[in-house]
Amino acid sequence: MRIRTLEIGVGLFLLAGVLALLLLSLRVSGLNVDSTDTYKLYAYFDNIAGLSVRSKVTMAGVTIGKVTAIDLDRESYTGRVTLEVQKDVDILPTDSTASILTAGLLGEKYVGISVGGEEETLGEGDTIRDTQSSLVLEELIGKFLLNSVNKE
After folding, report:
1. Which H helix or E strand runs over 101?
2. Which of 14, 50, 58, 146 measures 20 to 30 Å from 38, CA to CA?
3. pTM of this prediction?
4. In angstroms, how far is CA 68 from the centroid of its own chain?
5. 9-42: string of b/e by CB count within 10 Å (b at 16+)?
């Protein structure tokens, strides 16, 4: 009887450990974000290279949301990014700027929002008009090489 109690105790302890690891992995991956306290914004970029769904959205270095969808706009032939922003960040002016930035030199891509100066604020379903596309290192090197060849 004592061995059976010990085995059940060890089993419960292992189960608690596995559940704790599962919870930790969900928090790290960002899958557990409750979308009821967010609102959607849209931004159109000429180049979305490297940006992925679930990338973070930041303002002044603070994470305020995530990217929920990336698709091609068939009318303007640009990339449309759907952003989910926390409802308590309802202070974004209509002239705010969205940029695709890189964490470090070759790190992950994320969307950074710079605040504008208008008094009107963005709401559910609004579009950020002023955007800055992703910087692609290969294009930059190609332009540099092309300019150095043209000078000679």
Report:
1. strand 97-102
2. 50
3. 0.70
4. 8
5. eeeeeeeeeeeeeeeeeeeeeeeebeeeebbbbb
